[in-house]
Amino acid sequence: MTPRIRSLALVCATAALAAPLLTAPAQATPTPPRTGFEETNGARWTTQPEEQDLLAAVDRATGRVSVDRIGTTKKDRPLRLVRIGERPAKNTVLLICSQHGDEPSGREACLSTIRDLAYARDKKTKRFLSRTTLLVVPTANPDGRAADTRGNSDGVDINRDHLSLRTAEARAMAAVIRDRKPDAIYDLHEYGATPKYYDKDLFDLWPRNLNTDDAVHAEAQTLSKAYVRPAAGRDGYTTGTYGIWTDPVTGDPIKQTAGDGQERILRNMSGIKHAAGLLIESRVDPLTEAEKKDEALNNRRRVTSQRSALGGLLDYTDARRGELEAATGAARAKGFLDRGPVYIGGADNDPAEPSEIIQDPPCGYRLDAAQYGDIKDELALHGVTVKRTKTGAYVPLRQSARALVPLLLDERAPYHMVTGRPDMAC
């Protein structure tokens, strides 16, 4: 299936797996590089050396692209961040590709999109990139990708480490979010279908965590329902809400199997950190008899569906940049007002129990020297403001990361890192 990607010509107008028809800029090499996946027509996934060669080529080809090393895995593989943009822009979008190493289609979509944007010369793309900076972590789990495993080289699921930040991979991503403050964070994954009840081409889901600002939550839902899903639908792909089984006749939800509001997941941490987050999941399983007989055909469908959804993200970014910037900017400022409850449980489709609501949060939390020593690096990576004291440290709630602080330090929070002493003398 060849997607009709309509995103301002921001990605290749032909199928993701065909040679790009975009004319390279004057300083570019005559022929844009192709991924290993494209070279083999989907018979295998792009290798790490092939990824490195492609990124080096696009970095050399144009000043609109830069590639930086943001970390190193336990197996000494580089974690890279690609920046695409004509100049520094206020609006920033971050793509996190293949946190789970055995879910490669998002990575392939990210690599080919990087290439297409790097070589595009049309006016609409140039205008878009003059107003938006696109950041891409093309392989968020290089060790897992090399081993074809969900977890990293220690077997840790990186997408359950965005609170504690124990892995090099999650730490690198946290630093990018802290320093670049993206307005949208788009997290690319894959899933295994359940016949009848859970078998769309693509599922997506916004932050369900109740600490997500209302306006940011609304923008994330708009991204999903008004842009990503329609873009995929125009290309013939079916879509739905991740983690919800539906009745095949009525379409009514019958069971929730995933997609809660726990703060360890990037989708939810995105909302807590004031970005419109969206998880996207393409279907791994073959859809047709032809795909069952031809693995490459199935692989191509997995990647082109991701490309279609990415087109919706780019359309959204261009159309709603003002609304998105207003929502994220206001959300970042609200923490300084130090008002309202903090939620340690529940979700947008699962109201919090009274025990899951800190109705009157403390002014801050006191840490002794040992506690602070244990988590000072993680607090810094999260961008949490800390005041050093003679006996340790004081972490005030009056800051942009207000809702995050109790999730890290309050003994009632299910995944807290240390138990801080609440300061109620407000």
Tell me what you see in this structure.
By secondary structure, the chain is of the alpha/beta class. The chain folds into two domains: 36-330, Zn peptidases (Aminopeptidase); 338-423. The protein has 13 helices and 16 strands. It has helices at residues 36-39, 48-61, 105-119, 123-131, 142-147, 168-180, 214-234, 266-272, 289-293, 295-319, 321-334, 369-382, 404-409; strands at residues 65-72, 78-84, 91-97, 132-137, 184-191, 202-205, 239-241, 244-246, 253-256, 276-283, 342-343, 357-358, 364-368, 387-389, 392-396, 421-423. The strands form four sheets. Strands 1-2-4-3-5-10-6-7 form an eight-stranded mixed sheet, sandwiched between helices. Helix 3 crosses helix 10. It comes from Streptomyces venezuelae. Keywords: Carboxypeptidase, Hydrolase, Metalloprotease, Protease, Signal, Zinc. Residues 1-28 form the signal peptide. This is Carboxypeptidase.
